[in-house]
Structures are given as structure tokens and as C-alpha cells.
Amino acid sequence: MAMSGLQIQKLLPKTNCKECGSNTCLAFAMKLAAKKASLSECPYASDEAKVALALESEPPVRRVPIGSGGDAVGEETVLYRHEKTFVNKTLFAVEICCCDLEAEDVLAAIRDYRLERVGEVLTVSAVAVSQSCEDEGCFLGLVKKALDITGLPLIIHAWDLSFAKKAAELAKGTRSVIAHVNEGNADELRAAAEEFGHALAVTAPDMDGMAELTSRLRDGGFNDIVMSFQTHSMAEAFQTNSIARRAAIAHHAKELGYATLRYVGRPPLKEPRTAENELDILMRDTARAIVEVNKYGGICVLPCFDPAQLVTLMALRLNIFTDPQKPIQVEPKVYAIGEPGRDSPVFVTTNFSLTYFLVSGEIENSGISAWLVIPECEGMSVLTAWAAGKFSGGSIAKFAKESGLEDMVDTRSIIIPGYVAQISGELEESLPGWKVMVGPQEAGDIEGYVKAVLTK
Ligand code: SF4
Hints:
Elements: H1 5-9, H2 25-33, H3 47-57, E1 64-65, E2 72-73, E3 91-97, H4 103-112, E4 115-117, E5 120-122, E6 126-130, H5 136-150, E7 154-157, H6 161-170, E8 177-181, H7 186-196, E9 199-202, H8 207-219, E10 225-227, H9 234-250, E11 261-263, H10 278-294, E12 299-302, H11 307-321, E13 333-337, E14 346-348, H12 353-365, E15 370-374, H13 382-387, H14 393-402, H15 405-408, E16 413-416, H16 424-430, E17 435-438, H17 446-454
Parallel strand pairs: 3-6, 3-12, 6-7, 7-8, 8-9, 9-10, 11-12, 14-15, 14-16, 16-17
Antiparallel strand pairs: 1-2, 4-5, 13-15
Helix pairs in contact: 4-5, 5-6, 6-7, 9-10, 10-11, 14-16
Bound molecules: iron/sulfur cluster (SF4).
């Protein structure tokens, strides 16, 4: 349980000196409990209070950075997204085995994969390099290629300990993950992780074994851990992830307060794909990955590079990990759709990302170039923004003037969404010299509108 204001007050000097800006120590403690103040604002806080509150402010699921590009797993504080938000999205890695003859092509494809959706660029986050033969040169060769070609962090899995340690050294400084760390190899792999700056993915046959191993590593001073549970069905994976996350967040079980890593193409080994089983395997692995995205997966290792599968998973992930309290929005400005000239049509809509991308996409589909005016609407959709007074004739006119639209175009017609036809009079009054045209209600009807009204 989080500490209450009264519990925090007992750790403070109780002199009510007011130097923190609060009238009493209790008032300051209440602010600390509500996370509206920092203990550093009290110059007289004891070391005991600092340690207690530092522990208190740690997220129940530890943050572990992966790679050097700002990715991380963990740092979560809630069980359900609507309670606050999820902080770090599930990272996707693609597995390559060392005997894979097409490894270089696959690595180049992973490097080049780039999906743009509602203004966000989505990419693969890591390469999982797995030992599949006894040849050290084969495995380390793959490690080098993966680092050189993609520049991504690795998930290193080698059953030969010396291979794993050499791979960790090659990947020094990339904040990679050494996988399959168990009771027997934990000490040696921990030393390699510490020396070369990596995290460890620990595994154990059951939850108790996992808790024991993470506690052992943490008590020994190593805490960059993710948990790789051994599960044998989708239901078990769902259940295990849920139990661990609930234990960490609702019951403050520090030993299970870590993100997870799962190879969705197993157990026990990757099945070779054939023409007969390819679709079944793809669907099964996609379903397993969906469970990971939906239920607390930290790193999800996909067994092969499949752009169609990635599109599905990336879109799902975007939905789950979008902050529900912050509508995704685009920058308010005048956008050029295609190559518009001074006489091109001018459309206006709100800066809710989905609205912007639907409308701009439909204008493109209609085959014309146009200007799209996007005023500040706090990321609301058309009707919501209108109801909230953020998308009115006055506000659109003000934005059009401030954005320099009148100097950019000779056109003096502006097309508003059909759902807000009622603002046309106010907009014409606020934007003298302009004719307001009422466009379709739905973005999907823009193409027909263009043909019927603008290019007939
Ligand atoms: Fe209490 Fe510290 Fe604030 Fe003074 S500065 S009132 S001791 S909390």
C-alpha cells in the first residue's frame, strides 16, 4: 500500500517551520502522499525519511532501459489502463537463429521496417539472436551481423555459456538482454551483464522459483531484470503475466515487480514452417503475441519477420498503449495535401489525429491537391470540439488569420465538415471576404463531394 500523509508525517521533523512552502509538516506530508511535492523541498528531512520515500516512489514494476534509443520496459503503476495510463509499450523483437542462411536479408528487412500510423513511426525494437548449432563462429557471426546491420539491441540466447558471454561482450554498450538465465548460470551471466551493461531475462519452472531467483539477484545488487516465465499454453501465459503484474502492483511483491519477456514461437522449439502449416503457425503466433500486448507483455519475441503480422500487432499496441487521458493530436497548422497551389481548395477540420489522417487520406484519394486547415482543438473530434466550444466560426477564423492562410492562397472558399454546418454563418461573419461551403459529414464521402462539387 502507498504511504498515507499521516505515515509520511511521522518521518518529517514536525517543527512546522514552513520553509517547504507549506504551513505545517502535515500539510507537506499530504502533498507528498499526493505526489504534488518532493521531499527535497524540506531542508531538514532525515536520511531515514529520504530512504523510505525513495523506496515509496519507485514504480512497483521496475523500469529497465532496452537499447540506447529511449526504449524501456516496466515502470508501470496500474493494472488497468483507464486507472492512469500504461507507461512503456510491449517491445517487439524478431528471432533469428545462427544457421539461418537468409539472416542478412532478414536483418536488413528488420532494420528497414517502418510503419507510419496516426503520425507515429513504429519499428522493430530488438533482434533476438539464438544459438542453433555447436559452432561458436556461426553464432558470434550472427551476433556481429545483427549489431552491424540493424544497430538494435539484442536478446541473446545461447545454451553454451561461453557463447553467451562472448556475445554479451560483442554487444557491449547496447543495453541488450541476456536470456535464459536460470539458477545454475545466474552468477556467471550476471557478471557478464554487469561488465557489459546488459539486462538479464531470468527463467524458472514456476512462480516461486522465479521469485527466488529475482530476489537472489536483487539482494546481490543486480536489478536490471526481466522475467521469462515457462508456460505451455496461451491461457497459462495470460494467467502468469496477470498474476505477476497483480502481485507487483496490488500486493507490492518486489520479487515479481519486473517486466516480462516471452518467445511466442515456442515452446519448446521453433517449428519449421512448411507450405501446409505456415498459416496455422502464423495465426497461432499472432494470437500469442496479442495476449502479450493485451496482458502486460514487456518484450515479445516473434519467431520470424513477417510484415503482415507486424502491422496487426503494431496497430493493436498503439491502441493499448495510447494514454487515454491525452487524445493523440497533430500540430495545429495549415497542411499541404499533395502539391496545392494558390487556387487549390481549402478544407478545415480538427487536430484529433484520427480525424486529420482520415480527412487528409480521403482528400488524397480524391485525386486533388488541397490545403487542410487544422486549428487547435485540444485533440478533439469534430462534434466534441464543437460542443466544447473549441471548433467554432470564431476560433477557425482566428486561426486562419494567425496562420497566414490569407497570404498563402488566393482561394476564398473554405469547406467545413458537414457535422458543423451550423457554424457557417458565424465563420463567414468572422472571416470577411470568404465563402463558407458545407462539406460532407463523413470523411469517406469527401471523394464523392470533390467529384460532385469541386471538379464537376
Ligand atoms: Fe516541516 Fe520540513 Fe516543511 Fe519545515 S520544511 S514545515 S520541517 S516539512
